[in-house]
Amino acid sequence: MCTTCGCGEGNLYIEGDEHNPHSAFRSAPFAPAPRQMMNITGVKTDNFSPTRSEAGDLHYGHGEAGTHAPGQSQRRMLEVEIDVLDKNNRLAARNRARFAAKNQLVLNLVSSPGSGKTTLLTETLLRLKEKTACAVIEGDQQTVNDAARIRATGTPAIQVNTGKGCHLDAQMIADAAPRLPLDDHGILFIENVGNLVCPASFDLGERHKVAVLSVTEGEDKPLKYPHMFAAASLMLLNKIDLLPYLNFDVEKCLACAREVNPDIDIILLSATSGEGMDQWLSWLETQQCA
């Protein structure tokens, strides 16, 4: 369960797992699950009131847990979060130790849906093809489309479908990574589910989180989703080839990112035009040698 939104695993599927009860699962036309009737008589709910601004805006993130769920006290939500994240962090530490033993650079790519993450990744892999061994773990709620796009570049990839889950976790990486043929000193790219909220809390055992933000999303995205950009080592400002057609203030965006995370590295690039790609590849090379 996600401690931020309460999502469940749903139909978890990792390619090649013939013993998984959902291994034969493929995307089907989506149909909402039947609504369950619940008898809430006698259920004790927490009397939690949001803070109000002078303009009348409501803010639910001021309690101990930093979030809100109907029927759950702030203390109980905090207890659940500590328990879930503690288990995940122990698994992430094991993953990190395994990757370090092989001197593998592992990057967790995070973004909103539609930021151009997969297109950027395929272009990156094509440019690295003759230089560095790479492999990819693709995270999506459904379909194996992105893994197929990655494999078309000649790079080994495995798809992890999270079902109702809105993020990857350390156990999923522990299950998927050993199935990929990746040499020592190689790079493992983990493309997380498109979501700037929940993946911020879940360590996968990566060396760095890399936040991808496109110029079509708005300059203040780092301020709206501060936990993700605070956790990221690098922000890639993508699709800069579209800047002539947009009213997007690059300097304001960079200032917003650095307000949240003064130490964040930032690279402006376009997978389509190729601008900034050399700087991105240079950053990868530096991290490999670190």
Automatic annotation (TrEMBL):
Pfam families: cobW. InterPro entries: CobW/HypB/UreG_nucleotide-bd, Hyd_mat_HypB, P-loop_NTPase. GO terms for molecular function: GTP binding; GTPase activity; nickel cation binding; zinc ion binding. Keywords: GTP-binding, Hydrolase, Metal-binding, Nickel, Nucleotide-binding, Zinc. Residues 106-266 form the CobW/HypB/UreG nucleotide-binding domain. SUPFAM superfamilies: P-loop containing nucleoside triphosphate hydrolases. GO terms for biological process: protein maturation. Residues 51-73 are annotated as: Disordered. PANTHER family: HYDROGENASE MATURATION FACTOR HYPB, HYDROGENASE PROTEIN ASSEMBLY PROTEIN, NICKEL CHAPERONE. Belongs to the SIMIBI class G3E GTPase family. HypB/HupM subfamily. This is Hydrogenase maturation factor HypB. It comes from Klebsiella michiganensis.
